[in-house]
Design goal:
The strands form three sheets. A six-stranded parallel beta sheet has the order 4-5-8-9-10-11. A three-stranded parallel beta sheet has the order 1-2-3. A two-stranded antiparallel ribbon has the order 6-7. The chain is globular, with a radius of gyration of 20 Å. Helix 4 packs across helix 8, helix 6 crosses helix 8 and helix 13 runs parallel beside helix 14. The chain has a single domain, classed as Alpha-Beta Barrel (TIM Barrel), CATH 3.20.20. The chain contains 14 helices and eleven strands. The protein has 321 residues and is of the alpha/beta class.
Length: 321
C-alpha cells in the first residue's frame, strides 16, 4: 500500500490541484544508479527509487515479452476469422499482471508503479519495419489495418484487465507518432487508422476514471487536440530536445493535459540540468498537472553525475517552491 501522502500527491497532480510538491515520474534501468543505493540485505532497486524521491515509475519492464511468432499466429487466426480465439491468451495476460502486481508491491510504499504497455501503431511498425510499413500503407492497406487491429485488441485486453484489477489511476501507452521535426504519419492517417482504435481500446480505463498518458518521443504539439478528443489525458515526455515548449503547453492546456517529463539529461552538465528543472517548475509547476521526469529515462548510457544531479535538483527546487 502506498503512503497516504504519496497517494494524495499523485491524486492532486492528475486532478489539477496543487500538490504538496511536484511529483517525480521516471524509470530506472541503469545498474550504476541501482548499485549506488544498494546495501546488503536490502532491495537495491526499491532503495534507489525511494532515496531518489521517484514518486511514480512510469515504465513496466517485463522480464519476458510476447514474441513476434505469437503475433503472427494471432494474425493467422484473425485472417481466417477463428471466432473466440484470443490474440493474447488469458494465461499470458494473467502472468503479465502477476509480474506487474509483484513489482508494484516491491516499490511500495514510497513509489507507485504505473502500467505501461505498447500501443497499436508502434508494434505494427516494428512488425513490418518502418520501411515495409510505409510501403504497405499504400500497396497493402488492408494488411496494415489487420495488423493494427491485432495490437489494438491486445491493448484493449490489457486496459480492461488493469481497470478490472483496480491497480491505480495511471496507464501509459507507448506509441511513437513523431520525431524532432514533427509527426511521422500524416494527421489524416492518424485520424483514420489510429485514433479510433485508441479511443476504443481505452474505454475500460475511461469508465474507471483512470488517466491515460501517451508516451511518444518527438514533437507532437501539432496533434494534441485529436489526442485530447480521443480520451488521452496526458503526454510523456514533453520532449524539449524536439522543440516542445512546456510553458506554452501549460498556458493552453492548463486543466486538460497532464505533462510528464521535460528534463533532458544526455550530454548535459549538472548546472544545465538544474537550470532545466528550475525552468520547468517555473513554467508549469503550479495548479497540478505536472510530473517532473527525464526525457530518456535513467539508462545505462547516462553519466551517474547527470542522473543524480537531476534528482537532487528536483528535491531541492521543489522544497524552495
Amino acid at each position: 500500500m502506498l503512503e497516504a501522502v504519496l497517494q494524495k500527491r499523485i491524486e492532486d497532480a492528475i486532478e489539477f490541484r496543487q500538490p504538496d510538491r511536484v511529483p517525480v515520474c521516471d524509470f530506472l534501468s541503469d545498474p550504476k544508479v541501482i548499485e549506488y543505493f544498494a546495501s546488503p540485505g536490502h532491495d537495491g532497486l526499491a532503495a534507489a527509487y525511494h532515496q531518489l524521491g521517484i514518486d511514480v515509475c512510469w515504465r513496466f519492464d517485463r522480464r519476458t515479452n510476447l514474441r513476434r511468432p505469437s503475433a503472427k499466429s494471432s494474425l493467422k487466426a484473425f485472417l481466417f476469422r477463428q471466432k473466440k480465439k484470443e490474440v493474447l491468451t488469458r494465461q499470458a495476460l494473467e502472468e503479465e499482471f502477476q509480474e506487474f502486481e509483484a513489482l508494484q508491491k516491491r516499490l511500495e510504499p514510497l513509489t507507485y508503479q504505473a502500467m505501461s504497455v505498447p500501443g497499436c501503431l508502434s508494434p505494427a511498425c516494428n512488425y513490418f519495419g518502418i520501411r515495409g510499413f510505409s510501403e504497405k500503407m499504400y500497396t497493402e492497406p488492408l494488411e496494415i489495418e489487420r495488423i493494427i487491429d491485432i495490437y489494438a485488441e491486445i491493448l484493449y485486453q490489457r486496459a480492461a484487465e488493469f481497470a478490472r484489477r483496480k491497480l491505480g489511476r495511471l496507464f501509459f501507452i507507448c506509441d511513437t507518432i513523431a520525431y524532432d521535426k514533427g509527426l511521422i504519419f500524416s494527421p489524416d492517417f492518424l485520424n483514420l487508422q489510429w485514433i479510433p482504435r485508441i479511443k476504443q481500446a481505452i474505454e475500460p480505463l475511461k469508465r474507471e476514471n483512470i488517466k491515460v498518458i501517451l508516451h511518444s518521443l518527438g514533437d507532437i504539439s501539432s496533434y494534441l487536440e485529436p489526442l485530447i478528443d480521443s480520451g488521452i489525458d496526458g503526454i510523456h515526455p514533453v520532449d524539449r530536445e524536439a522543440g516542445m515548449n512546456i510553458g506554452v503547453l501549460k498556458k493552453i492546456y492548463a486543466r486538460s493535459l497532464i505533462l510528464c517529463g521535460n528534463i533532458s539529461l544526455r550530454q548535459k552538465t549538472p548546472i544545465e540540468i538544474t537550470a532545466q528543472v528550475r525552468e520547468t517548475l517555473r513554467l508549469a509547476g503550479f495548479n497540478g498537472g505536472l510530473f517532473l521526469g527525464s526525457v530518456q529515462g535513467i539508462k545505462e548510457d547516462l553519466k551517474l553525475a547527470a542522473s543524480l544531479s537531476f534528482f537532487t535538483a528536483a528535491r531541492d527546487l521543489n522544497e524552495e517552491k
